[in-house]
Each structure stands twice: as C-alpha cells, then as structure tokens.
Amino acid sequence: MRRLAHLRGDIEGWRELVRRVDDALELASLGDKALQPDIEHELAVIEEEITRREIKAQLSGRYDRGNAFFAIHAGAGGTDSQDWASMLQRMYLRWAEKRGFTTEILDMSEGEEAGIKSVTVSVDGEYAYGYMRAEKGVHRLVRLSPFDAAHRRHTSFALVEVLPQVEATDEIVINTDDLRIDTYRSAGAGGQNVQKNETAIRITHLPTGLVVTCQNERSQSQNKTNAMRVLRARLLGLKRQQQVEELAQIKGEHIKPEWGSQIRSYVLHPYQMVKDHRTDYEIGNATAILDGELDAFIEAYLRYSIGQAD
Question: E strand or H helix at 204, and its extent?
C-alpha cells in the first residue's frame, strides 16, 4: 500500500506538470506581449521541476526511496584523520538537516585527542538512501594540519559506508543461534544512567564475523533493537557485494579495493577545491561543501551512474 501511494503521487505529479506545460503553450499561442514575463517565469518553473523529476527518476533502485544508515571510519593519519571523520559527520548531518531528513547517532567512538574514530548514523526521509549512496567510498582531505606543531600539510583519509535500512524480511534471515550478544557500559557521554548500567550492546554475527555496536540510547533494549537494524543492513550489504563480485568474476572484470581508491578529494591548501574522481565534477568553494552543500555532487554522480549501468 505504501508503494502504491508513492506511485500514485508520482503519476499525479507528472500529470500536473503536463497540465502546466499545456497552459503555458496556450498562453504563448495568444501572442500577447504583456503575458511574456508570466510565460517566461512559468517556463523557468517547469524546467526546474523537470530537472528535479529527472534526478528522482534515476532513484529507481529497490531501496532508493527508503531510509539509510551511514558510517564513517577514520583511516590512516592519526588525529588528523579522526578530525577529518568528525568534519565529514558534520557535513552529512548539515546536508540531511537542509533536506528535512531526521538523523540519529546510534554509535560513536571518539578519538583520543580530537575527532572520532567511527560513527554510525541513521537517516530517515524519502529517498535518503537513494541520495546518500552517492557518498559511499573513501574521502581524502589535504590541508595544513592544526595538530602539527610545524603546521605542515597533511593528507587524511576516511571511509564512508552507506547502507539501506531494511525490514525483517525473507531476504535477510538472522538465526539467533548465530549471534553473540555482549553488554557493556557506555564509554561516551549520556548521563549517569548510561555510565552506571550496562546499556551498550555489541552483537557479533558468528558466520560472517560482522560486529555491530550501539550505545547511544539509555535503554539496553533500544540499543539492541538499533544494533539489529544495523546488522540487518550490513548483512544485506555483504550479500549484495558478494553478488557483484560473483558477476564480475563471470564477466572477467577487475574489482578495485574500496579502501585504496578515493572517490573525492577535498583540498583546503594551497588552494580550495573539492573534486569527485568518478565524475570529474569539481567546485572551488570547499567551505560550502563542508557546510553541507552536497546536492550538486550527488546529482552529478546520479547522472554519471546511468552511463555506468549495465
């Protein structure tokens, strides 16, 4: 029923666009110069709506319309990379806020001096996964390090994972006998209740070795529920990756190791530039991008991905 409602909404949106085009053509056929400004304004609105719908038409994957999880992991580079992971977290939270999405930090491991070692966040909103999947991969930062006494230029890396939120379906069956569930005290902020009681959850999926932790909630049961949601998403991601690798072996394709190939570089020194290495799209205003203005990069990737589709 939810899918049917979405389809009805999409169809009605296209019908309304056709009506607007017909009305604009009818006005133009009158040849009244006084109506010219109104017609031009309407054409601009129609073009903007067509562009928006073209992008949404590319979000036709099974999970594209649904919610997402994203996780950020600091790479090699010590404190600089942990700080970079924290900057990426802020960037995505700002982007989600601007889009009207709801976010919740499910688990976070803070760095020793600054930044974060890793963080897992849920993003709820229509097409959250469809848009966010463009961000999956390694992100590279070049800047003058604020943690280097000599203020030298450093390069930092962080890995961004993006997974769809999936319901408990037959596609992903989790046998409780395959799980080891440990409880422990939260290491982060959260009030006395979090510190005194073992509310944090660690779930290990024994057949795959996947480990999921969650410590944000004050309730152990809530943390367990969220951890199971993330585990289900990771198992789906693992299953899909195995399918891609099997298909690539059949076709004789080479699969690049994800960690070794960055998808985007953010340069803050000696000049400002953000460049996506998949699409070659680049912008000189790195500050705006780090403040959450990501839509141009995401849209460029969605257009690029059509050409990569088999």
Answer: strand 200-205
Domain total in the chain: 3
Ramachandran region, residue 148 (left: φ > 0; alpha: ψ -120 to 50; beta: rest): beta
Same domain, 227 and 150: no
Q: What is the mean pLDDT of residues 15-32?
A: 89
Co-location of 89 and 152 in the same domain: yes
Higher pLDDT, 228 or 53: 228
E strands in 26-136: 68-74, 102-110, 116-124
CA gap 276, 298 in Å, rounded? 10
Which residues are paired to 141 by β-bridges?
156, 266
Cross-sheet strand order for the sheet of 282-283: 102-110, 116-124, 68-74, 153-164, 137-144, 262-267, 273-276, 282-283
Tell me the C-alpha distance between 71 and 107, whole Å.
9
Query: Quick one: 12 and 156 in the same domain?
Result: no
The Cα–Cα gap between 233 and 134 comes to 17
Query: CB burial class (10 A; 0-12, 13-18, 19+) of residue 107?
Result: buried
| Residue 40 domain boundaries | 2-57
pLDDT for 184-207, tens place per residue? Answer: 887 654 444 445 577 899 999 999
**Burial grade of 282 (CB within 10 A; 0-12, 13-18, 19 or more):** middle
Is residue 50 located within the same domain as residue 78? no
Domain CATH code at residue 184: 3.30.160.20
